[in-house]
Amino acid sequence: MTEQRSRFLGYAFAADSEDAARDAIAAIAKRHHDARHTCSAWRLGSPPPPREYRNDDGEPSGTAGEPLLASIRKLDLTNTVVVVVRWFGGVKLGPGGLARAYGRTATMALEAAPVALLPLGRTYELRFPYHLRQAVERLVTLRGGLTRTANYGVDVAWDVWLPHSGCPGFAEAVVEATAGLVVARETTAD
Fold it and tell me: Which of residues 49 and 131 earns the better pLDDT score?
């Protein structure tokens, strides 16, 4: 996008951590090292509240990073990074003009990027003897879960994912259904 001879170029990325967000921003800054400003914003995690960050990179306070973050919020996105690079064209845009240009560029980048819906849940590790497979499988299925990985050796080893709605009481239900022979160990939470 061009505004009063200044060029604006927007990028939108998915990121699942602050390190990934910072790496994406650094890669764009390195790629466009000749630009005057590389402004950025990100929003990570699940409410309440998601973690947010904004950076004006030398532009007047609140004229770049905040409009970028507002564009992410407006689309109700998370695990998202927006970077807008500006090459100064010699004409000052003023605070309002800067905010509009950065916000418009961020919105265009976000609208052009693919969006993925990610269900929230948790992953559990389960290890059990073969004769308990049917009981464990029934518990996972009743709670809306999916088996992500399955290894069959001396015992069965599964990594299962459950939506948040299926998590309360899952570990206790596994212990009860298997007479204490199987313990569900939580490995991750989304």
Answer: 131
